[in-house]
Amino acid sequence: MASPEQPLIRNISDTALWVAVFRARETERQGALFRDPFARKLAGERGEQIAADMQRGLRYEWPYTARTVRFDQIVTEQIKRGADMVINLAAGLDTRPYRMDLPSSLTWVEVDLPGMIDYKEEILAEEKPRCVLERVRLDLADIAGRRALFQRLGRHAGKVLVLTEGLLVYLTRDEVSALAQDLAAQSNFHDWAIDLCSPGLLEMLQKNLGALSEAGSPLKFGPEEGPEFFLPSGWKAVEVYSMLKTAAKIKRLPFFLWMMSFLPESNGRQGSRPWGAVCHLTRM
User: Fold this and answer.
1) Which candidate, 133, 74, 128, 136, places its Cα nearest to that of 106?
2) What is the mean pLDDT of residues 236-250?
3) I need a labelling partner for 116 at 20 to 30 A (CA). Which of 11, 104, 137, 256 fits?
4) Is pLDDT of 1 > 50?
């Protein structure tokens, strides 16, 4: 258990350990929807402690499984459609370059804080990625730094898929808009996969995940516009996958939520309704 001297979640990087536990649990299930043989080792004892100590931790497992499945799907489809570079912003402990069936010619770029990348490289030092893998130590709040990075990467790719899995919810509206505009400024950044929540779900998560605020990483972004929020920045949603309906489809939705999966889909503007989705955006 976490002590007063050792808070449950110390910083935003600790959430990557927690999510890795969820990937490990799915991997170890019979009939697993994906397999991440590195997740348990990456999560480590700290990740297990966070997962065990978070109240009602299993409540949060199903949306992360649904999110992983949908991001995997988008990555696979876009590579088939010609993406030759994937840029994973705030990559955390994601292991797709190691666990997915990827062409060896693909370039995969992971961007994250130095401490996160150092830890990941130490754990995976003996493993070999299935494609060309580059890691960039960068705080994405460094606007000049990320713009320079995007420009450099854009010069060396034909068609780019950007991933921001679990990132946007920690940013303000203005910060999300600025990032969207920086990505749109690169003409060959063609597709962008994100996860998104409604104001109603954001409020629920803020109440249930108070440890994040205490660690200085409050949840902030849940636009009432839904995916339409990105239109002024040059991005439109071409695929929107409800977390709830995805979890029901893949048979990971808890029984007490099953009836909610029959509610009409809502992919547009959002309000007090708890709603989360994985969205595939493309350049306008």
Assistant:
1) 133
2) 95
3) 104
4) no
